[in-house]
Amino acid sequence: MSNRANAATGTKAPAEEENKSSGREVAETVVFVVVLVMLLKLFVAEAFVIPTGSMAETLWGHQKLFTCVECDHQFPVNSADEVEPNQLGMQQRVVGYTCPNCRYRSTADAIKRTQREIPNASSGDRVLVFKPQYHLNEPRRFDVPVFKYPEAPQRDYVAMNYIKRLIGLPGETIAISQGNVYATTALTYPADELTENGELRFPQPDRKQDLWNLEYTYPQSYSENDLLAKHDFRILRKSPVKMLALSRLVFDNDHQPKSLIGRGRPRWFPEHPTKWSMDDAKAPKRFAGQGEERIWLRYQHLIPNWNDPATPTEPRVITNFMGYNAGEELPGKRGPSFENEPNKWVGDLMLECDAVVGAGAQELILELSKSVDRFQAKFDLKAGTCTLVRVRATGAEDLTTIPSGVQSAGTYQLRFANYDDALTVWVNGKPLDFGPAAQYPPVLAPLEYDAEDTSKEGWVRANDLQQPASIGVIGPVAVEHLKLFRDTYYTSRSKVETYYVQPGHYFCLGDNSAASADSRSWGLVPERLLLGRALLVYYPLSRAGLIE
């Protein structure tokens, strides 16, 4: 009766009106969400995919994740050229690797013999970029910005977005020398200064928007590094958080190569074996000290000859080798890049371990060598202090002493780094505050270079070959989970290279310096082309976290 009445009067049933209202609400909600997402993408945050390996291993591009058949260390290998043609127009399949931990070199045939599959290429990290960052705050050194490539911000209607690490600020002259970066504002570049030939020494472009070009950084190369002292260059030091982000594994003692067990000396070995107790004499992972005298563990960088693993090998210096760049590719070879340069000696090292301190323990020392000097974090386990020590040929010098919190019996996670001419100590994940006393004047080059140091890098056989890292103890102290890292090494083709950073511009480098096209090769990043700061990796979930 009521339905017929509604029809007669031309009015709609309440259910029909409710359905129409509900449909309109859904449509409005969808439109609102779409508009909101577009606004967020335009003004607040945007997702990007990392295509290349120029920021490895901080950020991964297209890569294959291998597990070494010898030591079970898992690591990525660059496969960008397999996914997209390289600069030679070739696509190259990654079929093997060289393990960054044990240096085992596995070819496609070797992988098949182990009945393992060559992994498929995975896409790069997905990162979230906070776009208002540089509208709210000035860019900061060691940020990771995303920006439009200045030479071609767009190519074939596709945005050319790059991601690098910000190193140099406007008005600075940046120097790259033996892996470290330096800055000064003492150098000037007068626009009217002439050369002996009457030409402008520091030319300017016709258009100010072209100041980004490499030509206007006035790049210079020098064979000796006395330039750094002459012009007040200061080394650019990283915060403890950045140190960890830019550390690269040298050796994880928990992942020793199986084929070498019992064949020669392991990388970590006791100086006096009878004074240590080890869990496994052939492949020790836990070393327990005892007695009233100081005893030492030593590390040597032993790279085996995998064609003849039974033959003992001589120690080598630690270099900037990157497993990420060492994939075996078929067919052809890569195009020219810094990656083709020989590996360089790296003297900036970091040592970490778990220390099990027993009752009555007296002392624990973490020691790192660099050229003619050795540096120590000396823990007094009775007083609960840590002393930083610089050991020179003329004797040991205590730099500073502070409370460490390492005193009572227990297990402590310890880490000691000698990066950027400064010493840093962590206890249970927290850095100790030594203040400016932890910073030291640069290590001087040796009076005579080693005969094998043909590049005159400055390493010393007694330190950098024989004992680049050591652990000393007095009393019942056991150490385990030993890991050795190195700092990121910024490559240059001469002893010192300098670049001027024009006003309104920034100097940016890739973390994977040996395989990065960056401000060294094409120039500066104009402030107007900064899109925002890369905040976090959100996918894959196994790598999710903040970008430091």
TrEMBL record:
Annotated Gene Ontology cellular component terms: membrane
Pfam families, A to Z: Peptidase_S26 (PF10502)
Broad enzyme group: hydrolase
Transmembrane parts of this sequence: 30-50
Residue numbers annotated as active site: 54, 164
Keywords tagged on the record: Hydrolase, Membrane, Transmembrane, Transmembrane helix
Stretches assigned to the Peptidase S26 domain: 119-184, 424-539
UniProt-listed InterPro entries: LexA/Signal_pep-like_sf (IPR036286), Pept_S26A_signal_pept_1 (IPR000223), Pept_S26A_signal_pept_1_CS (IPR019758), Pept_S26A_signal_pept_1_Lys-AS (IPR019757), Peptidase_S26 (IPR019533)
Reactions accelerated catalytically: Cleavage of hydrophobic, N-terminal signal or leader sequences from secreted and periplasmic proteins
Chain spans, region Disordered: 1-21
Biological process (GO), any one: signal peptide processing
EC number: 3.4.21.89
GO molecular function, one term: serine-type endopeptidase activity
Family of the protein in this entry: Belongs to the peptidase S26 family.
Protein name according to UniProt: Signal peptidase I
Organism: Tuwongella immobilis
